[in-house]
Amino acid sequence: xxxxxxxxxxxxxxxxxxxxxxxxxxxxxxxxxxxxxxxxxxxxxxxxxxxxxxxxxxxxxxxxxxxxxxxxxxxxxxxxxxxxxxxxxxxxxxxxxxxxxxxxxxxxxxxxxxxxxxxxxxxxxxxxxxxxxxxxxxxxxxxxxxxxxxxxxxxxxxxxxxxxxxxxxxxxxxxxxxxxxxxxxxxxxxxxxxxxxxxxxxxxxxxxx
Length: 209
Hints:
By secondary structure, the chain is mainly alpha-helical. The protein is built from eight helices and no strands. The longest helix is centred in the last third of the chain and has 41 residues. The model has no long low-confidence stretch (mean pLDDT 81). Keywords: Membrane, Transmembrane, Transmembrane helix. It comes from Clostridium folliculivorans. This is Stage II sporulation protein M.
């Protein structure tokens, strides 16, 4: 684990600009997600509010279905994980990696803004509980993996101009480094499946029922 952290630190020092660009793109996505709620129709907001009220009224009686939750969490997060990994192998993959990062930021910003907009001040606490725990782990993971994918994609592009070949060692290093970083993804999925739903249940029972 220490070796992995040291490699991340070294990679960060050598590729500060790429990390800064990806972080900036993520922040832009969050901001766009937050402000997009302003263009949501009142009918759509009412539908969401109706769904939320139904959820609140039944949450105290429902058992949490962890099986469905972990399948949903894995499906949602693996889309980003596999997409970014594969784009790193494509010469023109870097711009598409940035689009994925932008989308991830947008989804987080939109979800937070939606709860706050519909529930007012009461929605802030629920939004923080629903989004922060897993994303404290998943967002750094997305930024690190996206940076690695962009670096590898750019290396492949450079090799086309220099008529060189990306070595098998470099490919193996990229894949191993990427897969090892998936420990953060596993931790995020665990939080999203087993911790967040129970925290939300406690908060909803205490303040919303």
